[in-house]
Every structure is written in structure tokens, then in C-alpha cells.
Amino acid sequence: MTTKPSVLRADARRNRERILEAAVRAFSEKGPDVAIDTIAKAAGVGSATLYRHFPTREALVEAAYRNELARVCDSTAKLLTDNPPDRAIRLWMDDFIDYLAAKQGMADALRAAVASGADPFAETLDKLATALGTLLHAGADAGLLRPGIDPFDVGFSLAGIGLVTSAPDQRERAGRLLDLLLDGLRYGADGSESSSRPGFGHNPRRLCDVSGPAAPTALRSASH
Fold it and tell me: What would the pLDDT profile of 168-223 be if each residue is shown by its tens digit?
């Protein structure tokens, strides 16, 4: 009996996801020189299967990083469907802190990939800006978050929380700081108080307009 192509594609997608998840763990825990066979074994696939998806170590590192980025950035629609916007952005903040932790764990592997000519960070700011701007916009429209919040302000805050609570035993503190940040985003949502300077929360892609050398260092650090 011949296996249907759709089944093969589904199996290939599952294999790819398992490989990427195993790669993030391996590069984070064992460093950039971890054996490819070790990653394949952790993913429950053969080395040949891994190499069919990712012919080089650099390709695997880049794909693993981009997969983590996509995981957090592509979650906004479901979060907003399942939760009020203020709750959705709070859950997204948790995911963003986890993304920063994974990126930090993979730092050596990412540096090695960049040195070889790969560009894992292409479009990172664009994706983060779109996700964050969407959440802020939804919260403002629902009257749950203050309108006109500058996404850079939120990005700086999240990057700072990620930096000062990067140790695993600081995760509880990170949660408390995220709660405080959310309280700040809610303040003035009823129009009784608003920021005196213009923001661009209703156009999240504006954040990408300054993603070059002039982009604020802390937020660029979060995306690199």
C-alpha cells in the first residue's frame, strides 16, 4: 500500500519540529559544538533525516532561532481569540521572556552561525514589532490598555526584565515585574490619564523604520 503524500508531508513537518526543539535545548545546554548526532538522537530521528532538513550546522542554528521567534510572534492571533487583550499581552510577555532565555542560551551557536555568513536575525524586529503592536492596538481598542503606547517603551521594558531576570531562579521575579508592567499599560485606559508625547501603537510597523544603527540598543539586543 502506497503512503499518501499528505501523510509523508505531515511526518516530515513533525520531524522538523522535533529536530528544532531538540536543537534549541542542545545548543543551549551543550554549546555550539554539540554533535549533530546527539541532536538527531534527542529528536528521535536518524542523522540522515536531520541532514535532509538542515544540510549544515549553520542552517540548523538559524532555523532553530527563527522557529523560536515565530513561535512567540505567531501566537498573537490565538492569544487574542482565547483571552481579553490585556490577558493576551500578559501571556505574550511570558512567551517573550522564554524566547529571550532561549536566545541567550543559544548565543554562542548564533555567533558562530553569523561568523560563517548566516543571518538568523533578518526580519526579527519586523516580526516582534508586528506582534507587539497588534496586542497593544487590540488592548487600546477594547479600552483595556492606554492608547498611543509607544512599542519601543514596552520593548525596552521587556528587554530589561529579561536581562535582569535571566537566571532560572529569577523566573518568579520576572513574573512579578511583568505584572507591574501590565499595570502600567492599563493605567489611563479609561482616558483619565494619557501620555503627553505621541506614540505609534496603532502602526506597529513604524517600529521597523528605525531598526538600523539608530535603533535603541536594548531592544536591538533583545532581537540579536
Answer: 889 899 999 999 999 999 998 877 654 444 443 444 444 333 333 334 444 445 55
Read off the amino acid at residue 168. Answer: P
Burial per residue of 53-87, b for 16 or more beta-carbon CB atoms within 10 angstroms, e otherwise: ebeebbebbbbbbbbbbebbbebbeebbeeeebbe
Three cell numbers at 100?
529571550
The CA distance from 205 to 174, in Å, is 27
Query: Is the pTM for the entire model greater than 0.85?
Result: no
* DSSP string over the chain: -PPPHHHHHHHHHHHHHHHHHHHHHHHHHH-TT--HHHHHHHHTS-HHHHHHH-SSHHHHHHHHHHHHHHHHHTTHHHHHHHS-HHHHHHHHHHHHHHHHHHHHHTHHHHHHHHHTT--TTTTHHHHHHHHHHHHHHHHHHTTSS-TT--HHHHHHHHHHHHHHT-SGGGHHHHHHHHHHHHHHHHTTTTSSS--SS---TT-GGGGGGG-STTS-HHHHHHH-
Extract the C-alpha cell encoding 12: 516530515
- Grid look-up 534549541 returns 24
Burial 161-174 (b: 16+ CB within 10 A, else e): bbeebeeeeeeeeb
Instruction: Estimate to the nearest angstrom the gap between the alpha carbon of 91 and the chain centroid.
Output: 12
Of 16, 7, 8, which is closest to residue 53 (Cα–Cα)?
Answer: 16
